[in-house]
Amino acid sequence: MSPAAAASIAFVVLVALFAAFWAWQLKSANAGMIDPIWAFSLGAIAVFYGMASDGDSLARALVATGGGFWGARLGWHLWRRNAGKREDPRYHRFREQWGAAAGRKMFWFLEFQTVISMVLSLAFAVPAWRADKPSVAWVSIAVAIWLASVTGETVADSQLRCFVADPANQGKVCRVGLWRYSRHPNYFFECLHWVAYIALSIGSPWAWLTLLPPVLMAWLLMKLSGVPMLEAHLVHSRPGYAEYMRETSALIPWPPRRG
Predict the structure, then answer these.
(1) Any transmembrane segments, and where (predicted)?
(2) ∠ at Cα 40 (27, 38), nearest 5°?
(3) In 3D, which of 162, 167, 174, 180 has the Cα closest to residue 230?
(4) Distance between CA 194 and CA 201 in Å, rounded?
């Protein structure tokens, strides 16, 4: 199957999936469940591209395995975090701002996620459809980056989950483990994950396209819907968070500043 045909199928399926979710959230009033669905669906695209392409078999296998596992792990983590809970403050804030137009605007907001997903899926498409076999060196680098990123994100998520689950930490700022060195270590490793597919694409004439996903992800998390909206909520709901912001790196893990 050609990459254009596969991308067209993926796009149509995403549009239909997110439209169905929009109809569901009209009754549930919990748009935050789009987060795990987004992760699951993007991981499924990686598996689909790996199976549908006619590129190098090793690159296809790495895309399907790496992207599929990443999506399944992140999706399950987000599902456990959001299912049965109150709506994420970010989405609740949207509803309040949009007022009577919330239903219509939420639809287009959710459908815009399909565009973001398709840009991110370039990281899977380029290596999956490369005709030549990637070098052993670049495969090793790609696997090392992937392992470091997925392991790091899993550890960060686990540390935060355990901290929040302890009643003694209610209302406190998490500064344990990786969270001592970065306010958002999970976001850092999420961005790093997309870099793995750059290494896997080296040698392909379309390798430059794989620069877009990590840049887009970093911009979304640091400038749009991640850090700005999350920290605007936390600085008012967590005593000491403003101090934490002054002392701790926003993204890249780094020794904390004092004073």
Answers:
(1) 6-24, 36-52, 58-76, 107-129, 187-209
(2) 55
(3) 174
(4) 12
Per DSSP, 192 falls in state: H
Helix orientation angle between 185-201 and 136-165, rounded to the nearest 10 degrees: 170
Q: Which residues are CB-contacts of 160 (< 8 A; sequence separation ≥ 6)?
A: 174, 179, 186
Rounded distance between C-alpha atoms, residue 210 and residue 188, angstroms:
18
Nearest to 18 by CA among 84, 83, 110, 108: 110
Q: Give the pair of three-digit tokens for residue 208.
A: 């430059």
Distance in angstroms (rounded) separating the CA atoms of residues 6 and 113: 18
Q: Which two tokens stand for residue 52?
A: 């549908």
Contacting residues for 1 by C-beta, under 8 A, at least 6 apart: 52, 53, 54
